[in-house]
Amino acid sequence: MSSNEIPLAQSFVLPCGLKLSNRIVKASMEEMLGNSDNQPNEYIYRLYQRWANVSFGLLLTGNVQVDDRYPGIMTDMMIPSKDKIDIEKWKKYADICQSHGTPTIVQINHAGRQSLSGKRPLLERAIAPSPVSLSFGNNPFVRTLQRLALGTPKEMTRAQIDETIEKFVEAAELMFKAGFAGVELHGSHGYLISSFLSPKTNRRQDEYGATPKDRIRFLLRIIDAIRAVVPSTFAVGVKLNSADYSTGGLTEDEAYDQIRWIDDHGGIDFIEISGGTYEAPAMAGSEDDRRSERTKKREAYFIEFAAKVRNTTKIPLIVTGGFRTREGMNDAIVSNACDFVGIARPVCIQFNLPQILLDPTIPDKDARALQYDIRGSSIFSLIPIPGSRSSCGIVWYNWQMQRVAIENREPDPTLSIHGKLLTVLFKKTKKIIPFFVLLCALWYASLLKEFILNFRMNK
């Protein structure tokens, strides 16, 4: 098979003029490598140096929070206030990602109601289109944890909507100045933009939620505001849910309409198709996979939806999630279900996977992602939280990224979740023990002092 016969190897030019050498996209993952200032650092540089050199057509970074008051987690990459931005760190990040010619696009995000407590003042709540809290079931323990960690968000005022749009604009401007090829707006998985798009979480009765078309206004305003300040050659994409997969959430028909409206509106260079929220994590792979056998053979979780909307929009489509073989990826391209295939978790283990997929000397049966099991994950099915096992898998892949980035070691597909948890607990315990020893020593010293004083008084 020659390289010309591999659909994945074909080049593509986005509407903004950005040329991609092939159809394989390194999809976004949450690296959890932020340090004290949550800006790029030696760990993120080391990780992306590996991905920059393995023949992807496009790199999408992990999500970067546009407002450091509302992080998804405390180790996210974040954009701080203007007086604290270190542009040189972002420039170095862009240079490393693109050091071998692969254009890199930064995924920018606002966690919205999924923002954990931590950076905000104690009683300040997260913000969202409507005051709808996350729900992980009726287990009392889980509901207590949810209230403590997330709580109920407060409904955004128009002033807060305007301010948040400006935060997205500032993020896009920063990425342009740093030298990245574009930005992707994270509009899926239940984060802020996604919350505006979903009827479950957007119950407003104003121009941002009164009708299905009003729910997309927030996203369209962000697109227009970014387009007003960056060159036409700077790519702007969006990641959207095909559905929320939860009762009352966004349906496929509604998602279909949203893509049609975005197409009519213009200003977008690509759409990445995903699905689910952290209440129903379809993007992590379903623990109860009810897809038809035909769909399973096509591998990708959201390929059928992409094929459905393909005739609705001229905007290039990326489908991420589930792809494992060159045959499955080629089929997606040849059938015109999508223009690009996004790969995430497999390349945390097998960094050279794109090179294998593009190598015409490797037969199709061998051009596939490494097969392995996540040892120790089955026990997490017993946890009474939806998607616990698949979410645990996400953490396992994150450990693999940290092996490369922090420990400067190769990934380990044999890594056991149980073993890793014990190691983490042991390390944490070692840090805690000196603190408890100090407390005991102080307690003992106070008792000794009191004993001596009493002894002298009674002498």
TrEMBL record:
Protein origin, superkingdom: Eukaryota
Listed transmembrane segments: 432-453
Segments forming domain NADH:flavin oxidoreductase/NADH oxidase N-terminal: 19-354
GO molecular function: FMN binding; oxidoreductase activity
Keywords: Flavoprotein, Membrane, Oxidoreductase, Transmembrane, Transmembrane helix
Signal peptide from the UniProt entry: none
PANTHER family in the cross-refs: BINDING OXIDOREDUCTASE, PUTATIVE (AFU_ORTHOLOGUE AFUA_2G08260)-RELATED (PTHR43656)
Name of the protein in its database record: NADH:flavin oxidoreductase/NADH oxidase N-terminal domain-containing protein
Organism of derivation: Rotaria socialis
Species lineage: Eukaryota, Metazoa, Spiralia, Gnathifera, Rotifera
